[in-house]
Amino acid sequence: MKLELVVTLTLEATHSLEEREKPHDHRWDIQVGLKGDLEKGRVVSLTHAQELLSSLLKPLQHTFLNNNEYLDKNARTCPTCENLALFLLDRLKEPLNQLNPKNPPAISFIQVGIWDEGVQLGFARLSL
């Protein structure tokens, strides 16, 4: 039986895009779907999955994404929901093996939503 565990975290950071040149703050809600077989009643440890994702987001927290060298060039040049989702996909592939070395979960989706002044403006969903 395959189940999906959805891990949710928040990123607070500043960015600038061509249509709004002045740097501005946003909250990004990040959701990652992890699909796999049940082992001991779960796909993976939610705590371990949150710690892993949090460690990947930590270098981005409270930074200006356009200048953050941790991001790849595409995400730095245009820090959008779409490019952040692609960046996370690339960064998550290897570490997922740590969550369950015998049967690592697969990423089923990555969703990055963006908020401004308490309103969700939209989100990008990368489905795999």
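Next protein, fold it too.
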Amino acid sequence: MPMPESFKEYTELVCQQLRWKKARSIIKQEIEAHLCDQRDALMKNGMDEDSANRESIRQMGDAVEIGMELDRVHRPRPAWEMFALTALLAFIGIFIKIFLTYDSNTPMQPIYSAVAVLLGTGCMLGAYFLDFTLIGKYPLLIYFGAALSVVALCLVSGQRMLNGKYYYAQYVLLLYPLAFAALLYRLHGKKYTGLFLALAGVGLLSFCCFLVPSVGGLAITVVSALALMIVAAAADWFSTGRARSFIFIGVVTLIAAILLLLSLMTSGGLTARIYAAFNPWSDPMGAGWQSIIVRELVGGARFIGRGSTGEYSTGLSIPCMNSDFLLTWLIHNVGWIAFIVIMTIFAAFLFCGFRLCFKQKNMLGKLVSFAVMLILTLQTISYVATNLGFALIYSMSLPLVSYGNTATIVNMALIGVMLSTFRTGSLVKDSTLGHQTTRPRRLRWRNGELTISFKRHIAS
């Protein structure tokens, strides 16, 4: 049945009261759907079409009043606390580079870092105002684009490597959890086919990590993918049942752990590295020498002020001490107070971020924001562990604080994507994939209040 002109005029008048233009199309669809449902119900009770149209509008209430009430409810919700914590971490990073770790041999380094923060801020704001639902509209393009870009960078770089890695390709790996979140969103309702395709998706991304090669990128990719699959399974995203999804993920994880254990048994170098991470004194002149120096510097640190050195750390220094081991440098030269302050701010950032992630009503926003938080969290954990003397997996950077201009720009862009989900996620519905969602059943102005109730339906 065609939409009556009276319904269109009514919804247009309601939407004219909404200052947030992005919300207008959503509200228009909801109100028109309710009016049609109400009209059909009245016609089933014997009322003619024209009378049913008029009665549906009358029951809905005054269009201006409803629009003004909806305007109060539907407004962008910027996560100001996340903006503030991001700015604070970036400021701390610049302060440390200019006033604490300045090296006269590289006088331009603080300037480059400041420029990276400015570029990162531009990327963050651009991603913030960009429609994050593009990830849900073009998930395969995003997934394969991220995967193939690493392959392309490795081929273009040729033999130009730094510390055994294709330098710029390793930073693209930070996008892999987000790319996997896009793939997961595409696999909604695919049952066991979706689970196997998700597993194959992890395999392709892992293969690309080996091309770089980057153990840190591989760890972030695999751990994030596992966590994202658990979130999807908890929502029965694959339509196999939560229990079956969890069993599948558990079996795959167990098999992967067994294969990893077998590879460790056949790889002497990898086994020595892991053993040295737990007991660096077993190889003090080889795999464990950096961890020994770090542990001595940390062990001799004071709460405030410069600490003492030990047997191995006296007269020696670790390469990139004020970049890859920035926290170690701060703990030794400034004191534990610097570490406590920085970690407190990081803890607040991560707590607020994850709290907002799990408040997301739609699955796309939840997967995207959770992927970004996992990227930032795993970087932070691995960086802190290395800087405290447990050098199992080296992190690319301490997000926003340590040196690493490319990493700063990428991380700030990712934060912008996450903040975009917090800002507009309340308007997004996962109806494009046909899974269950909600829409208003009763939307009526009565006694000065807007009454809204909901019914479940399957989106077409």
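About the second fold: Strands lie at 436-446, 449-458.
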